[in-house]
Design brief:
Layout lengths: L2 H30 L4 H26 L4 H29 L11 H27 L5 H4 L6
Keywords: Membrane, Transmembrane, Transmembrane helix
Organism: Actinoplanes octamycinicus
Protein name: DUF4396 domain-containing protein
C-alpha cells in the first residue's frame, strides 16, 4: 500500500471517529427525546461536523496555531470528508428498513449505525485520497502539526 493511500486511510479514520461520536450522540439524544427522522438526522449531522472539526482543531491548537487559523485549517481539512461520510452514512440508515425507527435498546439500531459508518468509511477513503493527492483536505493539517 502506498503512502498516499495510508494517509487517506488515516484521515478517513480520523473523520470516522468524529462522525461516529456525533452520529451516535445525535441519535441517542433525538431517540430519547422522541424526535422524528428529519430532526434526528439534522442533529446527528451537526454533531458529526462539530466533533469532526473539534478533533482536528485540538492538535492544531496544541501545535501553537491561533484559534481562528485552527478553525480555518479544520474547515479546509475536514469539510468534504465529513460531508461525504455523513451523506453516505445517513443514506445507509434511511435505506435499511426500520433502522431510523429502531430504539436505543434494539440491535437493529446499533448494527445499522455500525454498518452505515463502515460503508461510509470505505467510500470516503478514495475521496480523501483524491483530495490529499491535490494538496487539499487533510493535507492542510500536515502543515500545522505532526500527525500520528
Amino acid at each position: 500500500m502506498d503512502k498516499l493511500t495510508r494517509t487517506a486511510i488515516s484521515a478517513t479514520l480520523h473523520c470516522l471517529t468524529g462522525c461516529a461520536i456525533g452520529e451516535v450522540l445525535g441519535m441517542v439524544i433525538a431517540t430519547a427525546l422522541g424526535w422524528h427522522n428529519a430532526a434526528t438526522i439534522a442533529l446527528s449531522v451537526a454533531l458529526a461536523f462539530l466533533f469532526g472539526y473539534a478533533l482536528t482543531i485540538r492538535p492544531v491548537l496544541a501545535g501553537g496555531v491561533p484559534l481562528r487559523q485552527a478553525i480555518g485549517v479544520a474547515l479546509a481539512a475536514d469539510t468534504v470528508s465529513i460531508a461525504s461520510m455523513e451523506l453516505i452514512d445517513n443514506a445507509g440508515l434511511l435505506a435499511i428498513p426500520g433502522a431510523m425507527d429502531a430504539g436505543l435498546g434494539d440491535w437493529l439500531f446499533w448494527v445499522s449505525m455500525a454498518g452505515s459508518l463502515a460503508v461510509a468509511f470505505v467510500l470516503t477513503v478514495p475521496v480523501n485520497r483524491w483530495m490529499i493527492a491535490r494538496g487539499r483536505g487533510h493535507a492542510a493539517v500536515h502543515a500545522h502539526h505532526h500527525h500520528h
